[in-house]
Structures are given as structure tokens and as C-alpha cells.
Amino acid sequence: MMTNPTGKITQGQFSFLPELTDAEIRLQIDYGLGKGYAWSIEYTDDPHPRNTYWEMFGMPMFDLQDAAGVMLELASCRKTFPHHYIRLMAFDSTRGVESIAMSFIVNRPENEPGFGLARQEVRGRRMRYTLHGYASDKPEGHRY
Amino acid sequence: MNAPDYHIPGSTPASPPATSAANEVTAARTVNEVLAQSQVEAVLDELDRDLVGLAPIKQRIRDIAALLVIDKLRMNLGLAAVAPSLHMSFTGNPGTGKTTVALRMAEILHRLGYVRKGHLVAVTRDDLVGQYIGHTAPKTREVLKKAMGGVLFIDEAYYLYRPENERDYGQEAIEILLQVMENQRDDLVVILAGYKDRMDTFFKSNPGLSSRIAHHLDFPDYAVDELSQIAQRMLMQQHYRFGEGAAEVFRDYLQRRIAQPHFANARSVRNALDRARLRQASRLFAERDRVLSEADLTTLTPADLLASRVFQSPSP
């Protein structure tokens, strides 16, 4: 069985699709802005599925009208972290919602080794399973 | 490794949608067709109607609109049209309508399709320049991001540069501004506004800024006739009117007021009218038992105007 059939990590929206082009990202951003969401950019080099909070790149961008501002920030994030995972997230500040409404990966390393399933035998020959990223053996900043 | 060894649904690049053929049909070929599609004529007429005077400004706005229309026609024929630089500087005395025109400008550029959203972000030095090292750049960038797709209006722009303090962070804001003005030319339009003499020294000390601004518009002072027209319009908006003889008295007031220092054109007119309203209110307030008709409540009499301090000094 293949654990990593597409050769890339599938997290967030659109992750089973081919990579979004910049024009497509722009359209998604405009859609979110039309809904009144605030976009923010996060990056990480440890994309473990349980790693919920990535590092923030700058502040969340409130009160924007046009996708160009987010694209500008995304370009500078890509320049700073060309081999990291970068995702865009849209925060819906509606009272009672107040959570992330959209999230998708917009930058990923060329080579994604994926995750291994680590088995641990415990008392009574029971098995414990955990996911272990192949890349996360290396120190931070040298993973991809 | 990244290439999957089997087919992923949707992974084949979709053929580009056949919009070019559809565009051919609707693409405008004449100036009238572009105007009809963009409704810009309505905005220009509105500008003519709503703003008194300002002939050179209106002419320049018409020129810019014409250029953008022609560029659109060129684009429809496949001729390369380099996006013109539309950054502007508005100089003029206080109260000559710089902010009002900037607001209109955002709408005109939006109708012409030059800016995508057509909103106006009005800022001053405080919104751009930070208070400590490393504070300015994020602050300026945030404002620029908010303004993208629209117009960034920097009021009193000469405050950005303070020559007397060489460690002033204003210079940093100007540098970021310059960079964005140059690189994101089709994302936003920057309008700098300020008083003429101070803006001149500001541009002199920042030649890079001056040369990146294509349109230097100078707002002329209003003549007395134009100011009385403006007064009439302001009163109409607030549902007041001049009573018998009050319009002539107000003309006289304007002539005296212009000669005095700190005359701020339309803003002075507004202040004078506001004070006249106050006097009218206290005049009516004094007569406790009188039944006040609509005419009483909306009319400014000559007495309301003549009580002004301006009339106490001898006529010029």
C-alpha cells in the first residue's frame, strides 16, 4: 500500500488538485475578501498533520480590498522561505464563527518524502502506532 | 518522486476557456462604445456639475480619462499599451478641493478599469511613520496593502520628510513608497496632497519622488463669484437659504474676508456659514413664544451675517 500516493502532502483545501497558479491563488483570495475574511500567511518545515499552528509570516491582514496586497506578502514569504511549506489562511471574524474559514498550501518543497508509520510494541504484544516525518530527523532549517 | 505513477483526476491541464472569441464580439472599437461601457462620461459630467471652478483640474482629468479610453481601444486591437503612470500630486491652498477631487479620482479610475476596486485610503504622516526603529516599514507596508486596488491619498505629504531631523523615520516611509509606486504601478495609484510652497520644498529634497509622479496638479484659488456659488450649494445641501439681501451681504463678507490672513477658500465659506447658523439659532431662540414657520427656520438674514467680526474692520 502506498502511504504517499501523490508524492505530496495533502492538507487543507485543493491539496489533491495540481498546484494552484498565482492567478488561481489570486482568485481564491478575492473570493475570501469578498466574504469579508482576513488573510494571513503561515510557514513551517514540519508539516506533521498534528502540527496545527505554523509560524506566522507577518500580521494577519485585515481591511484589505484587493488580492494584490496578499500576493505581495506571499511573494516576500516565498522569497524568504523558498523550500518551506507556506499556506494561506482566511479568518472569518463573524461573531460566533471567529475561526479559520479557508486554508490551502501555496508553496511546498520540491522533494517531499512524506511520513513513515512507526510501530511500537508494548505490553501484551499490543501495537502502538505513530506518524513520523522522514524529513523531521534533520534539524530545523535543513529539512527540505 | 513528485510525479505520481498513475493518473490523478483533473491533473491534465484544462484547455484555456475560449473567451478570446467572445471578447472579439463585444470589444469596443469607438470612443463612444468605451464610454458607454465604462459610464465615465457620467462621472465627468458630475464632476463638472458638482465642483465649482477648478477649470485646469477638470481639463487634466478629462485628458487622463481620454488617454485611458484610447489605451483601452488600443488594447482591444492588440496594440501594446504600457500602463501609464497615474501617480499625482495635488498642490494648492487650503480649502481648494484637493480631497474632494481625490475621492472623485478614485471613482473615475475605477470606472475606466485602471484600478480594480476604486476605494480611497486617506492617510497622513501618522499612519505611515512609526515611532521607533523597525516600526515604520511594517506600518507603511500595511497601509499600502490596504490601498491596493484603489487610490492611496497622502494628505499633507510634506510632513513625511523632516530635513531638520536626519534620524527621522519619514525617509524610510518615502523609500518604501517609492519602491511600491514603481513596482506595483498597476495595483495602486498614489496621490500626494499639500500646500504649494511646502510641497515644492518637499519635492526638491526628494527628486526621486517628484520624477515618479506624472501629474502635478495645481489647484487655483477661488474667485469671489465661485465662492458665493459654493456657499449657495452648501446651504442648499443643509436646507438653508439666504434671505432677502443676504446673498449680497455674503459677497461683501467674502471680499473682506479674502483680504484677511488665514483665508481657506471653501473651508472658510463653510465656517462662515456655520457661524451664521449659530447666530440665526440664537436669534430664533430669543423669541420664546413665536410660532416658527419653515421659512423662519431655513432663512439666514443679512443680520446673521453682518454680526461677523469681519464687518467690524473698515472695508478694504
Characterize the structure shown.
The complex is a heterodimer of chains A (144) and B (316). With 144 residues, chain A is of the alpha+beta class. Chain A has two helices and six strands. A four-stranded antiparallel sheet of chain A has the order 2-1-3-4. A two-stranded antiparallel ribbon of chain A has the order 5-6. Chain A starts with 21 loop residues before the first helix and ends in an 11-residue tail after the last strand. The model of chain A has no long low-confidence stretch (mean pLDDT 91). With 316 residues, chain B is α/β, with parallel strands linked by helices. Chain B contains 15 helices and seven strands. In chain B, the strands form two sheets. Chain B has a five-stranded parallel sheet with strand order 2-3-4-1-5, sandwiched between helices. Classes of the chains: A alpha+beta (144), B alpha/beta (316). The interface between A and B is medium-sized, with 24 and 24 residues.
Give a nutshell description of this structure:
The complex is a heterodimer of chains A (144) and B (316). Chain A has 144 residues and is α+β, with helices and mostly antiparallel strands. Chain A has helices at 22-34, 67-80, and strands at residues 38-44, 55-56, 85-92, 99-107, 115-122, 126-133.
Which keywords apply here?
heterodimer, A: about 140 residues, alpha+beta, four-stranded antiparallel β-sheet, two-stranded antiparallel ribbon, 2 helices, 6 strands, B: about 325 residues, alpha/beta, 7 strands, about 10% strand, globular
